[in-house]
Automatic annotation (TrEMBL):
<dbReference type="GO" id="GO:0004360">
    <property type="term" value="F:glutamine-fructose-6-phosphate transaminase (isomerizing) activity"/>
</dbReference>
<keyword id="KW-0808">Transferase</keyword>
<dbReference type="GO" id="GO:0005975">
    <property type="term" value="P:carbohydrate metabolic process"/>
</dbReference>
<keyword id="KW-0963">Cytoplasm</keyword>
<keyword id="KW-0032">Aminotransferase</keyword>
<protein>
    <recommendedName>
        <fullName>Glutamine--fructose-6-phosphate aminotransferase [isomerizing]</fullName>
        <ecNumber>2.6.1.16</ecNumber>
    </recommendedName>
</protein>
<feature type="domain" description="SIS">
    <location>
        <begin position="42"/>
        <end position="181"/>
    </location>
</feature>
<keyword id="KW-0677">Repeat</keyword>
<keyword id="KW-0315">Glutamine amidotransferase</keyword>
<comment type="function">
    <text>Catalyzes the first step in hexosamine metabolism, converting fructose-6P into glucosamine-6P using glutamine as a nitrogen source.</text>
</comment>
<dbReference type="GO" id="GO:0097367">
    <property type="term" value="F:carbohydrate derivative binding"/>
</dbReference>
<dbReference type="GO" id="GO:0006047">
    <property type="term" value="P:UDP-N-acetylglucosamine metabolic process"/>
</dbReference>
<feature type="domain" description="SIS">
    <location>
        <begin position="214"/>
        <end position="359"/>
    </location>
</feature>
<dbReference type="GO" id="GO:0005829">
    <property type="term" value="C:cytosol"/>
</dbReference>
<feature type="active site" description="For Fru-6P isomerization activity">
    <location>
        <position position="364"/>
    </location>
</feature>
<dbReference type="GO" id="GO:0006002">
    <property type="term" value="P:fructose 6-phosphate metabolic process"/>
</dbReference>
<comment type="subunit">
    <text>Homodimer.</text>
</comment>
């Protein structure tokens, strides 16, 4: 069943280019227009939406955090993202013009299910992004966009996450298309870039041996920090979550701009810090700020592990290790920058003798409260 792979997680990481391509299949028309009639929410209603709220748990919540950047940029609709376990127990402001997006691989996560019920009781429309056909969350939603990752067996989510991102981008771009935004041309370009993204993921996977070697060298580390900005921030959170659940190591993700507000006190000689660097093109301010963050922590002894775009030589003087990822538009970068972090956590877990597919204390689907 593992098709020659050491674990389901290894297999599922390797399947990501296909999972991403399958999730795009049939959803992009010949002229680059998005074909999402399957949502069955009339365009007129989508034009009325004045707020999007994403609810999800764990890794799916991280996909939601990234979705916010895409939705607000391409549609100019305000978007909130909240762990379903928090949302369901408070009194959120919702109405018929709020579109609630519930993201779940399994479609059975109790907190996410309760959050969507909470939203529907208040008249909101719920769109599920889900990987499991016919599961409870899509059944109870008004609409569903299925991710086509195929069955995900390993407890740690990998290929489902990448396809959740693709689905979130599709929803954001589709909302932009239906409503018409000033980013029309950009949207066309991004759709073309999305169509080529599976190849970029494939290229990242083809060169993971240095990441594995690096992970093995860190098997004795106590703490690993992850830093990012913009969409790289949720990627940092996801990198830290993967490391916690698989390697049972203390790991934390931070917004790099928050460093000097506290976390930098943690930095000491030899501390491994993984930094997700945005593209130097486009939003170059972000890039330059993160390069100075890397310099700050390195000056305090951190061992800097930098995920950067191919050709970005500005990181070389301050990086102890560089992992190169293909040139990708900023908003889509999480599709390539997450992959080395998955491989890193998986290899560290193996090096520490942990059971990769079944980490201790965890269940694949949390169907209890
Ligand atoms: O099935 P779901 O996507 O609703 O699951 C949500 C979380 O339980 C899940 O993503 C969890 O955080 C994973 N173990 C992370 O790798």
């Amino acid at each position: 069943e593992k098709g020659g792979h050491a674990s389901f997680m290894h297999k599922e990481i390797a399947e990501q280019p296909r999972a991403v391509a399958d999730t795009l299949l049939g959803r992009i028309g010949a002229d680059g227009e998005l074909l999402l009639d399957e949502l069955r929410i009339p365009a007129a209603e989508l034009r009325e939406v004045d707020k999007v709220v994403v609810v999800a748990c764990g890794t799916a919540f991280h996909a939601g955090l990234i979705a916010k950047y895409a939705i607000e940029h391409w549609t100019r609709i305000p978007c909130e993202v909240e762990p379903a376990s928090e949302f369901r127990h408070r009194d959120p402001i919702l109405d018929a013009r709020t579109l609630v997006v519930a993201v779940s691989q399994s479609g059975e996560t109790m907190d996410t299910l309760m959050a969507l019920r909470h939203a529907r009781e208040q008249g909101s429309r719920v769109l599920a992004i889900c990987n499991t056909n016919g599961s409870t969350i899509p059944r109870e939603s008004d609409a569903v966009l299925y991710t086509h990752a195929g069955p995900e067996v390993a407890v740690a989510s990998t290929k489902a996450f990448l396809t959740q991102l693709v689905a979130c981008y599709l929803v954001a771009l589709y909302l932009g298309q239906v409503r018409g935004t000033k980013w029309g041309d950009e949207i066309q370009g991004v759709v073309r870039d999305l169509a080529g993204i599976a190849g970029a993921v494939e290229r990242v996977l083809a060169d993971m041996e240095p990441v594995r070697a690096l992970a093995r060298s860190l098997a004795g580390a106590g703490t690993v920090l992850f830093l990012g900005r913009h969409v790289g921030y949720p990627v940092a959170l996801e990198g830290a979550l993967k490391l916690k659940e698989l390697a049972y190591m203390h790991a934390e993700g931070f917004a790099a701009g928050e460093l000097k507000h506290g976390p930098i006190a943690l930095v000491e000689e030899g501390l491994p810090v993984v930094v997700v660097v945005p593209s130097p093109r486009g939003r170059s301010v972000l890039h330059d700020k993160i390069v100075s963050n890397i310099q700050e922590i390195r000056a305090r002894g951190a061992r800097t592990i930098v995920i950067a775009e191919e050709g970005d030589e500005t990181v070389l003087p301050c990086a102890d290790h560089v992992v190169w990822v293909p040139v990708t538009p900023t908003l889509l970068q999480p599709l390539v920058t997450t992959v080395p972090l998955q491989v890193f956590a998986c290899e560290l877990a193996v090096a520490r003798g942990n059971e990769v597919d079944q980490p201790r204390n965890l269940a694949k689907s949390v169907t209890v409260e």
